[in-house]
Design brief:
262 residues, globular, eight-stranded antiparallel sheet, 42% strand, 2 domains, Jelly Rolls, 1 helix, mainly beta
């Protein structure tokens, strides 16, 4: 005997679902289930996060998480980094979300300044990147996804591909051989630029995510496990739930159970 699920799309989910309601989304091809407070989604290519208990709260002064070397970023022809951020409107800028190699030259950098930048280092003296003229320091949770592949970098904000401009030199076909060294979440080790606000669910992938995969993360918290290399959920710890690159705490970040993106 077979049964058929009711259908919807990611934008037409029921407004008043009951706990246990299960539907098939025709646009994402995901099965979604309502647990009484939030939707969770499932597909054949990944896994879905359950309830979110905490976010990571950084003070903008000396708080950060050190990761060491993210080896998949070395000589990489493609990668992606996604994260939920809530940047304080009173934060000093630049405010670094993620950075490697201690500076933009040679490494990878994602940060909010007077604009939002995604930088890929080309050499010790040159860099390339995409710039979004937008200030995300608005005390609001946003999902950020930065993808790199085929000599192209893209920025998605809340699953929408942003209109950006190229900065620096032409985008390289691969990162430098040391691009993944000295990786930090929430700061730059050489000049501070500490992040003041909250971060959650920082993920590092070995491929350039598609727009559909970015949307799956934003709308249903579904991650492609075949591409996911490192995952920091900040559930009261700095553990890498997908790999073995656990973070090391610097400063005094706290875990906030009352202010989370979902």
């Amino acid at each position: 005997m077979t049964s058929t699920l009711e259908t919807c799309t990611s934008s037409t989910r029921p407004a008043a679902p009951a706990a246990g309601d299960t539907l098939f989304e025709t646009d994402t091809k995901n099965i979604i289930t309502y647990d009484g407070s939030a939707w969770s989604g499932y597909n054949n290519d990944g896994f879905a996060l359950g309830a979110n208990g905490y976010s990571l709260d950084l003070d903008g002064t000396d708080d950060r998480v050190e990761l060491g070397t993210v080896s998949i970023l070395n000589s990489a022809s493609q990668f992606s980094i996604t994260c939920w951020i809530k940047l304080s409107s009173s934060a000093s800028v630049p405010a670094k979300i993620f950075e490697t190699d201690g500076a933009i030259y040679g490494g990878v950098s994602i940060y909010q300044s007077t604009q939002f930048d995604f930088i890929v280092g080309v050499s010790p003296t040159a860099y390339s990147g995409q710039r979004l003229v937008r200030d995300l320091g608005d005390d609001t949770w946003h999902h950020v996804a930065c993808t790199y592949g085929s000599s192209t970098a893209k920025i998605y904000i809340d699953s929408v591909l942003a209109s950006t401009t190229l900065v620096g030199v032409a985008m390289p076909s691969s990162t430098t051989s040391t691009a993944g060294t000295s990786a930090h979440i929430g700061s730059n080790i050489t000049d501070g630029h500490n992040f003041q606000g909250k971060l959650d669910d920082l993920a590092i992938f070995n491929a350039a995510l598609t727009a559909a995969e970015v949307s799956n993360i934003y709308t249903s918290r579904i991650y492609n496990s075949a591409k996911l290399e490192h995952f920091y959920k900040f559930e009261n710890d700095y553990t890498d739930s997908e790999g073995s690159l656990n973070g090391t705490l610097q400063g005094n970040p706290i875990f906030d159970s009352s202010d989370k993106p979902y």
